[in-house]
From TrEMBL:
Keywords: Catecholamine biosynthesis, Decarboxylase, Lyase, Pyridoxal phosphate. The lineage of its organism: Eukaryota, Metazoa, Ecdysozoa, Nematoda, Chromadorea. This is Aromatic-L-amino-acid decarboxylase. Homodimer. One of its GO terms (biological process) is serotonin biosynthetic process.
Length: 125
């Protein structure tokens, strides 16, 4: 069963876009490397899986203390990455579209517009 209907998706999707935009705007204020001990995430994970889905608000509240706290930020100005990674707002929007369409592109007939509009010109030029 879906735990979110389309109206909730619109509301919470906008919250997530704001979260990501705020992350990029405030990246310089974060530590580039995490200051956590291995296994720290276990304090946020229940000993037994839930029998019912959690509310989005509960999950969203866990992002900062559970998820963001344990990351290495490769795009931080004080992290000298092993290799550059590409990330941009247009790329994030493309990921939203790709995930939202849920097309599995293993054959040309599935995502024909991708093949014709993006891949074919790359192959033939």
């Amino acid at each position: 069963r879906f735990i979110m209907n389309s109206e909730e998706f619109r509301i919470h999707g906008k919250e997530m876009v704001d979260f990501v935009a705020d992350f990029w705007d405030g990246l310089r204020q974060r530590q580039p490397l995490p200051d956590v001990k291995p296994g720290y995430i276990s304090e946020f994970v229940p000993k037994h899986p839930p029998t019912e889905p959690e509310e989005w608000e509960t999950i969203f509240k866990d992002l900062e203390p559970a998820v963001m706290r344990g990351n290495t930020y490769w795009h931080h100005p004080h992290f000298f990455a092993y290799f550059p990674t590409a990330c941009s707002y247009p790329a994030i929007m493309a990921d939203i579209l790709s995930g939202g369409l849920a097309g599995i592109g293993f054959t040309w007939v599935i995502l024909n517009s991708v093949l014709r509009g993006i891949l074919l010109p790359m192959i033939t030029t």
